[in-house]
Structure formats: structure tokens, C-alpha cells
Amino acid sequence: MPAKKGQKFKEYTFETKVEAIRLHIEEGWTYRKLMEKFGIADRHRLKEWMRKYKELGEFGLMDQRGRRKEYMDQDRYVQKLKRENDMLKKCLEIWMQEMRSTSM
């Protein structure tokens, strides 16, 4: 059944998802028992977590919506390193030209 406009869904923390998966895999808990413990209304949600875990590991259980701050920080850091590399390449090129001109 599709979601209605403005409908709110219960969200579960990353830790809750990991614990539910662990209990199911390592201790053999049933979906029903997990649903009762964590207050999960739909068995499909647990199956979806299990599928994502099997495909991507714990990373698959993370909320992937939007851009995360740490990713934006990483992007900025990578851009900074690229600028530094470009500058160092230019410096190396100038230095190499100077070395060639002084050795002649």
C-alpha cells in the first residue's frame, strides 16, 4: 500500500538495525521475536534490512538519504588535496626548467 501524503514512518537507528540482524543471524531469533523486542510493525522491514546487510554489510543499514556532513567534508578535503597536487606539479615543472637551464 503506497504512503499517503504527509504520512510519517517510524525510523530506526543504525544500532537497532545492527542489533536486530545480529540477534537473527547469531542467536537465531525469529522475525516475530525481533518485531516484539524492537517494536517493529512490519516483517517486510526486517527482511529488507537482512537483504541490505547481505548485499552491503553494515554500510547497507545506514541511512543513505541526502548528503552526509562527513561526505561533504571528505569531498572538500579531496578538492584541497587536488589543488595542492596541482600546485606541486607546477612547482616541480618550474624547478625542472631551472635545473635544465643552470646545467647548460
TrEMBL record:
Checking Gene3D superfamilies in the record gives: Winged helix-like DNA-binding domain superfamily/Winged helix DNA-binding domain (1.10.10.10)
Q: Name one Pfam family in it.
A: HTH_28
Domain of life according to the entry: Bacteria
* UniProt domain Insertion element IS150 protein InsJ-like helix-turn-helix: residue ranges: 17-69
Show the InterPro entries listed in the entry: Homeodomain-like_sf (IPR009057), InsJ-like_HTH (IPR055247), WH-like_DNA-bd_sf (IPR036388)
This protein's species is Paenibacillus polymyxa (Bacillus polymyxa)
> Taxonomic classification, please?
Bacteria, Bacillati, Bacillota, Bacilli, Bacillales
Name the chain's protein: Helix-turn-helix domain-containing protein
